[in-house]
Amino acid sequence: MPGVKGLNESEGEEMDQETAESDKSSNDDTDSSSGSGSEDDSSSEMDEESCDKRRNECLQQMAELERQFVHMKEQLYEERSSQVESRLEEVKIGVALEYTQPLEELHQNLKNRLEVSDILKDLRLVNIKHMHEAENQASKQNLESEKALLWDSIKCDLEDKIRRLEEDRNSVDITSDLWNEQVNHKRNKRKADPHSLGKRKKPVTVSDILSFEFFFFYAFKL
């Protein structure tokens, strides 16, 4: 029976060895699981720290950017304000482009308008001069025409009077005897009246009348 007992002992040893190995493997598994849990905890803590650090860095960057923005905004405001003040000063003293360029255009427009006005004035003066000369010439022509008509009318009247006087003279020649008798009668009457000596008048003859008419005619003509 010693062989059976040895066999049983060897089998028991093998079972004990297997149990020990299984216990060891279970312990190893337990140790590995506990180790992995601790590693997970440490990694989560590292992630939170990195997030906090990253967040703080972002906040700092945002604060820095905001500070730079405010600084640049103030600087831009100061530059714009100085530019506006300098432009206002240039406008006040009359050297700003916003002032000089429109002013130059206004001066050029004024110069052009003055030139056009001078040309228009000269043309109007020439036109008025021509109108005056035309009216003066028309008045002279009208005067000459009226003088010619009046001259013709007076000439006709004088010729008619001369003709009538010649007819009267012919009739006087026919009745000269009667005329002489009347003249002699008047002379005798004046001789008889001593008061009428200083009041003699020269008798009017046809030649005197004709001379007066021709004198008036030529005087009017001149």
From TrEMBL:
Membrane-spanning residues: none
Annotated spans, Disordered: 1-54
Chief localization: nucleus
Tagged with keyword Repressor: yes
A Pfam family that the UniProt record links to this protein: Sds3
SMART domains assigned to the protein according to its UniProt record, in alphabetical order: Sds3
UniProt-annotated location(s): Nucleus
Compositional bias of kind Acidic residues: 10-20, 38-50
Biological processes, Gene Ontology terms: regulation of gene expression
Family, as annotated: Belongs to the BRMS1 family.
The protein's name in its UniProt record: Breast cancer metastasis-suppressor 1-like protein
Species this protein is from: Larinioides sclopetarius
